[in-house]
Design brief:
Length: 140
């Protein structure tokens, strides 16, 4: 799913990214549903879950910020949230004074029917290029 979000606030605690555009870089086959920024798992099984978030900032903005994304699972039966994976960070600098950071998370996990999978991030004000953001899962 390609995101169309643009955040204006900074946050040090992770917040759920809820606005994603269905289609593009995401598999949503075999009965998967999208609800409130979360993908609902249709059947028990092992899935590959992935997300890549592009963060851009101007060279004059504070560099001492912490960027983190994580993939989370919420089970409606137990009413418990579980963090499945942390972020992986790649950094680069463009020619025109912008910093670009791609944060990638991917994992294989056994999920149960009706589990809800979602992405949380910190410092969301730097998510400025929504066409580069992806989130999805598919059954292995």
């Amino acid at each position: 799913m390609k995101s169309f979000i643009f955040f204006s606030e900074g946050n040090s605690d992770p917040v759920t990214l809820k606005s994603w555009k269905i289609g593009g870089h995401c598999y949503m086959n075999n009965g998967m549903k999208f609800r409130n920024g979360r993908i609902v798992v249709p059947i028990n099984g092992t899935y590959n879950i992935y997300s890549l978030i592009n963060i851009m900032k101007l060279s004059n903005e504070s560099l001492d910020t912490k960027y983190e994304i994580g993939i989370y699972k919420y089970n409606i039966l137990t009413m418990m949230e579980e963090k499945l994976s942390d972020s992986y960070i790649l950094k680069s600098r463009t020619k025109d004074g912008f910093y670009s950071t791609n944060m990638f998370v991917s994992l294989d996990a056994y999920l149960q029917k009706h589990d809800e999978i979602y992405v949380k991030a910190t410092n969301t004000k730097f998510i400025r290029n929504p066409s580069l953001n992806i989130f999805g899962l598919y059954m292995l």
